[in-house]
């Protein structure tokens, strides 16, 4: 049976998207919920997964091509490839050379930045004795803002884990012992174990969401998909097994029974604790106020439609909304230096450079990587920079250098459907701009009613340093720039 693979429904504020990465080729055998393709919008990357076990028969849209919501991008033949997938994978793995037990290597925490005192062992992806290949991710180590990955120095196996999950560690601390060259000696068992590790590290979005909702750990669920992959059916089957459910949950968090209902307590991650602390500090230590305006997005939408194809052909990247937002904000910051300043004790520090934080939603929480020197970037440079930060945020690859600094923040809740919000300051910054859902509304234009794509703007600012006149003027400048994009080119 042929199934059409389509682009997901895009939010109203997102006009189109582009094919970022195909993870499969025509003829590849895939299992249900396996990620087929990453589709990139202005700010988020969407994953499209296989609807069932089967084979990709046709791919209509290549990487880099612009696509619309619900557009067919591939054909999928259900039920063709699951039967022979396991033997083929075993055969491929068995061709790897086996090695003898070699030298012992200490696995250490990476050197931490000066501003980071310690870190926490978040997740071990391997167990002692398990066959490991060179550059395979061994462990995630979480700091206040970023997650660091420690990879295997060579083929081999862990002989001992010295720092379990949840333990606080310091820079260059030894957390495990590794034996090089010993991982392939258990050749018959290694393919299944390694495949299981790889598959479980790449759970599909629907499975990850279901696990999070039900408070389950994927490592406690036996996967029946390709290579031991955990599928939605495996999770649902685990939920239906009353005897196994408490045992699986008790290792990660205590479950308290309240009659027919239960509660579960899970410790906050370091990143979530840091987010909570900083948001509370912003509310308690600043005189925060929010002012609003609205902008007609039709001129920008018309401009993008007119030049999208030639822009993408010349620069190799889509022209999105965020580049216009960043350009408009940069120009407004030049005109209102108070908004580009911050309070340091009893001093006001005016920044003569333009580094803008872009709020990015990741599986571990909200982060704000910094796009630096935006005054020197063209539209293509801004789009490329935002795309790189969004992909790194999704994959947990952001560095401390990319997270530090920033004089002003842009957050776009519109991609998730938010119509209006009051964003909270990103300390020590003095202002943050919230962009929202683009929605058709009846507007009075020259005495007549017209239906226009409108978007609310929200500027939250610290009233200790920014007065009402500056805040309103700043927001009006952004509105004027977005409603007449020619101003961005002519500097008027």
What does this structure look like?
It comes from Paraglaciecola arctica BSs20135. The protein has 492 residues and is an alpha+beta fold. The protein is built from twelve helices and 29 strands. Helix 1 crosses helix 2 and helix 8 (322-335) packs across helix 9. The longest helix is centred in the middle third of the chain and has 18 residues, at 298-315. The N and C termini lie far apart (59 Å).
Rg over CA atoms, rounded to whole Å, is 25 Å
Strand content: 25-35%
List low-confidence stretches. 81-100, 183-202, 242-251
Structural class: alpha+beta
Major beta-sheet overview: 7 strands, mixed
Which percent range fits the helix content?
25-40%
Let me know the number of strands.
29
Distance between the termini: 59 Å
Name of the top-level CATH class of the largest domain: Alpha Beta
CATH topology of the largest domain: Chloramphenicol Acetyltransferase
Q: What is the general shape?
A: globular
Mean pLDDT: 80
Number of domains: 3
Please name the fourth-level CATH homologous superfamily of the largest domain.
Answer: Chloramphenicol acetyltransferase-like domain
Q: Figure out the total of helices.
A: 12
Please summarize what this structure is.
The chain has 492 residues and is α+β, with helices and mostly antiparallel strands. The protein is built from 12 helices and 29 strands. The chain starts with a strand and ends with a helix.
